[in-house]
Design brief:
single chain; 655 residues; mainly beta; Alpha-Beta Plaits; 5-stranded antiparallel sheet; 5-stranded mixed sheet; 5 helices; globular
Length: 655
């Protein structure tokens, strides 16, 4: 059983049941890819599919791996052999599968690594996958090269068709025999971190240096290695490098385990910026003489753990662990010491600091245990699972009145500067986990009108009228990584990638006579006939097929569908008679199209008047709404909006 997680805390588990082969002697698993997904609300979804790959991929040495790379998608790695008896014919491949079990794409990644000393395929020489800070921008694959001390650095992206797209590839050389760490940088690139032990006899010269190679997103050119840390203390070995974002500070942080000449393990924490500048270094002693695995915690400190086998039982391990802060102070993990885990001990820690431990499988059954680890810096968190944000308006879990909610504010702990091209997105929770986009705002979209500073710490965002148009509905806000930068360091700050900043709109009251009369009036009144105007580009496009009935119908069908989703209402509420005319008031000419709204069937449906108002607001503000990103709705003129012709039972016909 292997465990991974998405940024929103969704847990993904791969289940693999042993199938023992005796000729030749080996242990393999069922030739099925079985995934169980546990969502934050407790919902569990599962699938069991065939990957249609060679059987040796399911044997214990090869270990098929999977990675949650972006919302709803997994990246799965495996091997294809032209000749299973010739290791030099082995190639690494990857595929994309969604959480419904649908395979979207398979692509060759490169040649598999062959041990030059034994001439054997070495699946244990793992490639590493490092997700970009902006999940839609893909990942970095780092893989060793046969008959070389080099590593290939491959940047990939999953495109809009869920296909694997290679963005660039380059080769680096680094001293062998030492661990190598990779980390995404907050500016959208990557860093490759590695040590070099010199054992120099020159007095006062460094005995060990820690280097960083920085790679820009989508580019093959890399910077020369920079020194992030060096020490004159004799170092026998660097046994571990673990790197992550600095969720409390800025930039990135790496922790090294150094085995000193005195036989002690020392931890060294190095904090550095995306530019390659190290700004803080701290060393502290490792407790005891154990070689610990170590994971950074978002709420400060580190989780240290190790396993020990159980005699005569290969299915279970004893797991030992605790929390350690950067001053060397230990915190209990709140579980028995040791705690049982399965043979993989593939633990994971969720963004909310919850430790997930797989339990030994019993027959066809599997189970997990979880424990909330100590939040050393938990006082900085105000419900966002983000320790950079001090406060917001509205607050987490607030009940808001849409008629009074015209601005949002985000206050940071440190002074910040806005960055272009990164968004704050407001979504309506539709229960699918994807959300309905209501507003997308960034400094690039008219900063003076929608995004502005209140003071050095606080950003204010204007909310348009159509954003909160559903009563008694849950909404949440996502903040792109890099939406703001730390002013002192000019380093992008991590945002909010889950639905933690959420709130509910007030339930619309219909108790008063005036509100009740308005509801009844909307139901009795007829549908609305209205019109929109195409931009110049939209007009040119429309003219290219306006006499083709099938293409014209396809255009109108897609346009009304996008408008219905933008409101959102059922597709049957937004209609058209496919009429059009030329607007003679502008030059060059622009086409006006008939777009109509059917009346509500009952008091629970959105009224036709409110739909018309929302369409007008959405179109006029298309730079920050989904109208601007629609394939067809993007052709609508934001200066025109949606205009009501008349409200009666008769259709208005364009001439």
């Amino acid at each position: 059983m292997n465990i991974k997680n998405f940024d929103d805390g969704t847990i993904v588990i791969r289940i693999a049941h042993d199938v023992n082969y005796t000729t030749p002697p080996r242990t393999c698993f069922e030739e099925s890819f079985s995934i169980r997904t546990i969502y934050p609300d407790g919902t569990i979804k599962e699938f069991d599919i065939s990957l249609d790959i060679q059987p040796f991929n399911f044997c214990i040495l090869s270990k098929i791996k999977f990675y949650p790379i972006k919302r709803n998608l997994l990246f799965v790695t495996f091997v294809v052999a032209a000749d299973v008896n010739n290791p030099y014919s082995y190639d690494d491949w990857g595929l994309i599968v969604d959480l419904d079990g649908v395979i979207h794409n398979k692509s060759k990644l490169g040649s598999s690594f062959v041990n030059p000393n034994t001439n054997e395929w070495s699946p244990d020489q793992d490639s590493t996958i490092t997700l970009n800070v902006h999940r839609d921008d893909g990942f970095l694959r780092t893989t060793p090269i046969t008959n070389s001390t080099g590593f290939a650095l491959q940047q990939y992206k999953i495109d809009e068709n869920n296909a694997i797209q290679l963005l660039g590839e380059t080769i680096i050389e680094y001293p062998t025999g030492h661990p190598i760490g990779t980390v995404a940088t907050t500016n959208g690139g990557y860093a490759i971190i590695y040590p070099n032990i010199t054992m120099s006899t020159i007095p006062f010269s460094p005995q060990m240096k820690l280097y960083g190679i920085f790679l820009e997103y989508g580019k093959n050119i890399i910077q020369e290695p920079v020194i992030l840390y060096q020490t004159r203390a004799p170092i026998l070995e660097v046994t571990l490098i673990n790197c992550d974002f600095a969720y409390i500070g800025v930039g990135q942080t790496c922790i090294l385990t150094l085995n000193t000449a005195q036989g002690q393990n020392t931890f060294v924490k190095v904090d550095f910026l995306s530019s390659g500048t190290a700004y803080d270094v701290k060393a502290f002693q490792s407790p005891g003489g154990v070689n610990y695995n170590i994971k950074s915690l978002r709420y400060g400190g580190y989780f240290l753990y190790y396993t020990q086998p159980i005699v005569n039982d290969a299915t279970r391990l004893n797991l030992y662990g605790f929390i350690l802060d950067t001053n060397g102070i230990q915190y209990s993990w709140g579980l028995p010491y040791p705690t049982l885990t399965n043979s993989e001990a593939d633990i994971t820690i969720l963004p909310n600091n919850t430790l997930i431990i797989p339990q030994p499988e019993v027959g066809q059954s599997w189970s997990l245990i979880s424990i909330d680890l100590s939040r050393i810096e938990g006082a900085r968190d105000n419900g966002f699972e983000n320790l950079q944000i001090n406060a917001t308006i509205p607050e987490v879990n607030a009940i808001i009145d849409p008629s009074e909610t015209k601005i949002f504010t985000i206050k940071y702990y440190d002074q910040v500067d806005l960055s272009p091209n990164y968004n704050v997105t407001i979504l309506q929770d539709d229960g699918t986990g994807n959300g309905i986009i209501r507003q997308i705002t960034s400094i690039s979209n008219n900063n003076g009108e929608f995004v502005r500073y209140i003071d050095d710490f606080t950003i204010e965002i204007t909310v348009i009228d159509s954003t909160f148009n559903q009563p008694n509905a849950k909404y949440y806000v996502l903040i792109d990584n890099g939406f703001v930068k730390n002013r002192n360091y000019q380093e992008p700050i991590i945002g909010i990638q889950n639905s933690g900043w959420s709130f509910i709109t007030k339930n619309e009251s219909v108790s008063s006579k005036s509100n009740l009369k308005e509801k009844i009036k909307d139901m009795i009144d007829s549908s609305i006939n209205g019109k929109v105007r195409l931009t110049s580009d939209g007009t040119t496009y429309f003219k290219s097929f306006k006499h083709d009935k099938l293409k014209r119908k396809e255009f109108f069908d897609n346009l009304t569908s996008e408008l219905a989703k933008a409101v959102p209402v059922g597709s049957e509420r937004i209609t058209t008679n496919e009429r059009y005319e030329i607007d003679t008031s502008v030059s060059p000419e622009q086409y006006i199209l008939a777009i109509n709204i059917k009346k509500a069937k009952n008091k629970d449906e959105k009224s036709d008047n409110s739909i018309a108002e929302d369409l007008d607001t959405l179109i006029k503000n298309k730079l920050i709404t989904v109208i601007g990103s629609g394939e067809y709705s993007n052709y609508l003129d934001h200066e025109y909006g949606y205009k009501i012709l008349r409200k009666n039972p008769f259709f208005f016909f364009f001439v």
